[in-house]
Structure formats: C-alpha cells, structure tokens
Design a protein that fits this description.
This protein has about 150 residues and is mainly α. It has a domain of about 100 residues: Arc Repressor Mutant, subunit A, CATH 1.10.10.10. It has eight helices and two strands. A two-stranded antiparallel ribbon has the order 1-2. Helix 2 packs across helix 3. The chain binds iron/sulfur cluster. It comes from Streptomyces fuscus. This is Rrf2 family transcriptional regulator. Its cofactor is [2Fe-2S] cluster.
C-alpha cells in the first residue's frame, strides 16, 4: 500500500506540533520546515482542524497548536480518515472487472488492508515522537514560531 501524500503530511504535521508543544508555529512556518507547498499544508491543516486534532488561530499571537485529542489520536484513525476505507483495487467503476461478483482476491485484499490499519490503530501521535524521532523533529522545527 502506498499512502497519499496528504496522509503522510497530516501525520508529520501532528508529530511536528506534538514535539514543540507550547509553541504556536504558523502554517507557513510548518510548511517551510517540512519542505512542502503552503497550499498543500493549508488544506491538511484545515482537515485536521475540522477533526479537532489541532487549533489554528489567525492573526497576531495566532498559530497552530495540537489539541489533547490530537496528541492522543490513533495513527490508524488518522490514516483511515485521509485514505478512506474503499477498496485498494478498483473493481467496479466505468469498466467493472468480470470477477467482481465472486472474487476471492478482493476479499483477501480487503482483509490485508484492514490488517494494515489495525497495526497502526494502537499507536498514538505521542508514541511517534519519542526518541530518536522527537529530538530530530525538534532540531528541524526550530523555526521562528517554534
Ligand atoms: S480480480 Fe478481484 S480484486 Fe482484482 S479487480 Fe477483479 S474483482 Fe477486483
């Protein structure tokens, strides 16, 4: 399975905020730290804010902060929310596969996908920033807002 770029960015962004708790970097600063386009980071921030995983305040003294829900969020839940739970192979659509109605492979792939998510479910964002990742993220995240 290959994750969407936005899924990886969401996880990295939450980890970045988890390791600099107390700081309020702006979306622009976080995007620069992570070397991603501002517009892409802004879309991910909006979705994470919608899910209640971070607070985003505008203006002077504003910036991004991780919520308690974000710190304790399950990595699996974040991945599911960005990836969705659709099939990993397109079996239907405009040109449906002829095996669609009786395909053992489809069920096996579904179970494999669920096993992938289930492995990530017990892990939290907080777990992901223990050493050695957290200290490295701190070095990277010492921008003006950190
Ligand atoms: S072979 Fe099975 S899994 Fe593959 S596209 Fe067809 S129905 Fe889906």
């Amino acid at each position: 399975m290959r994750l969407l770029r936005s899924t990886d960015l969401a996880l990295r962004l939450l980890m970045r905020l988890a390791v600099t708790e107390g700081a309020t970097p702006t979306t622009r600063e976080v995007a620069a730290d992570m070397d991603v386009p501002y517009t892409h980071a802004a879309k991910v921030v909006a979705e994470l804010q919608h899910q209640g995983l971070l607070d985003a305040r505008r203006g002077r003294g504003g910036g991004l902060t991780l919520t308690e829900k974000g710190r304790t969020a399950s990595v699996g839940a974040v991945v599911r929310s960005f990836e969705g739970t659709g099939d990993v192979v397109e079996c239907e659509g405009d040109n449906p596969c002829p095996l669609n109605s009786a395909c053992r492979l489809r069920g096996a792939l579904r179970r494999a996908q669920e096993a992938f998510y289930a492995t990530l479910d017990p892990l939290t964002i907080g777990d992901m920033v223990t050493a050695p990742t957290g200290p490295l993220l701190l070095q990277i995240g010492r921008g003006p807002g950190a």
